[in-house]
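User: Hey, my collaborator sent me this sequence without any context and asked if I could get a structure. I don't really work with proteins. Can you help?
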Amino acid sequence: MPQPVDRSQSLEQLERRRWPDPPQDTTSLVRSVHELRRRPIGTLEPDELARLISQDVGLPWLLPLAVEILRATAPGQAAGGWYDDDLLYAVVTRRPEVWADAPDLARTLKEAVAILTDLSRYVKDEVDGFLASLPKEI
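Assistant: No problem. I've predicted the 3D structure and written it out in structure-token form, which is a compact way to encode the shape of the chain:
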């Protein structure tokens, strides 16, 4: 995963690839993903990151941002504060190969989820699956 990343650039700029405009009759999800790829990644909100990550779009640049957000907000959740389950779900449900290619990032995420105390059952199951898929050395 490339780091550090210029957050003022869009995924289109970082990937050096512009997607064609989506067809007129496409879904709102497809239109949204196309639009979000054109925005500077540093301006993306957690729900927008979750949308892109759940579609496996821009993972080399977006996963580090998402893990940074999750790590920063985990202590607050443990203290009874708000936590973005959608972003966490999107991140932990990526294929094991993604994490094998980014062991340091996987380790950081593993440390962040270890702090969490009050996850919904559906997210907890996915977190447990993520943790079980990691190599023992992570």
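In plain terms: Residues 13 and 19 are 11 Å apart (CA to CA). You can pass these tokens on to your collaborator as they are.
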